[in-house]
Amino acid sequence: MIPNNVFAETLLQFFAPIRGYLDDQTVSDIVINGPSQVFVERKGKLELTPARFETGEDLMAALRNVAQFVGKEVDEQRPILEARLPSGARLQAVFPPAAPDGPHVAIRKFPKAALTAARLVDLGALTPLAATTLHALVTAKMNIVIGGGTGSGKTSLLNALSAFIPESERVVVIEDSKEVQLQRQHVIQLEARPPDTKGRGQVTIRDLFRATLRMRPDRIVIGEIRGGEALDIIQAMTSGHGGCLGTLHATHPRDTLTRLETMSMMSNIEMPLAAMRIQIASAVNFIVQIARIRDGSRKVTHITEVTGVDVASGSYQTQDLFVREYAREGSADAASSELVPTGALPACLPQLREHGVDLPVALYEFARQTAASARSGT
Known about the structure:
alpha/beta; 12 helices
């Protein structure tokens, strides 16, 4: 049997045309549109490179070796490959006939060292006040969902927030493909597995989640909520498993809640919509929205509290604690933006104080100033 390190080096030789970009720490994504077009992303911007595979068969050979490395098969009946490279980078490929001009490949790289909240502050993704607020929310075991689009930095933000979990707590991480790098010692990482070519051996996120509930977790972290497991997660959040963290694809805090609804409906469990909304609003305490903004950078745009459901209208009730404000289009610094407090204080203050934590003093000051301005009518 070939040792893994030898197989890994052999595999990288097939990717010789893009090897430099795989090693380049400034590159976050590599996208290959057939053998003769390779783009890379740096600082949120895609740029065309001179890299080329000599023929489509050379690219196919590299991808077949990736499939062999991860124990999967690709052919006309199975034209989609999801895999992890030896470096930990995630690879997604679509082959002909599903991609007539392909194969098309996207490689997402992850930093060797997980981003910290302090680093996110340095990059402008967070402010010190917002980071301190999130520290308090995580410590107090609020259930937090991180919403954002593809490539917006959801997993990086999840990694940063994980550093706020007290070291005395046992954390179980559940993922489709291992990407989360929690900044702590006591972590159990579980990974789903697709069925083999004969349909055997599948382990789903739902399977892992149910097993996790019997593994004495203090915290459960879901790398990405994608399907029917959403209802299991919601029910766990409302039955004593506080402090859960997870990510999902959504473009706005309210979209995050409706996406959770949609995915909960995929569980094949009949539940009236009104009851489902009440459960979701009770389970999710906060939504942290992150996005790739106009200049290509990744920034937190909202920190939003979910306060309940309006009985009359059936709509979710939320309040923003922080919102990103943008410079006007056409101004001297149109790309600038700032994450600012709204002056609202969360309804969950008693729960925070039960855990011996409080919000930053500056947040109370913003709330006082906002209330004073409202009374004066300015």
